[in-house]
Design brief:
Distance between the termini: 24 Å
Low-confidence stretches: none
Order of helices and strands: EEEH
Strand content: 35-45%
Number of helices: 1
Largest sheet: 3 strands, antiparallel
Length: 51
């Protein structure tokens, strides 16, 4: 698994939650339930990072 800056993945109650954290902002990526190595998580991260 690669380390991606600003991506925070957390396993809570058996479900993965992914957020983009930069500075004091924390934005949900909306791809909850997917494992952090899933390409859709990285695609959502790239879309948020490009903003």
């Amino acid at each position: 698994m690669r380390t991606v800056p600003y991506l925070r993945s957390k396993l809570r109650r058996g479900t993965w939650f992914h957020t983009y954290r930069r500075g004091d902002k924390e934005i949900s990526l909306g791809v909850h339930g997917l494992h952090p190595t899933d390409p859709r998580v990285f695609a959502a991260y790239c879309a948020e990072h490009a903003r």
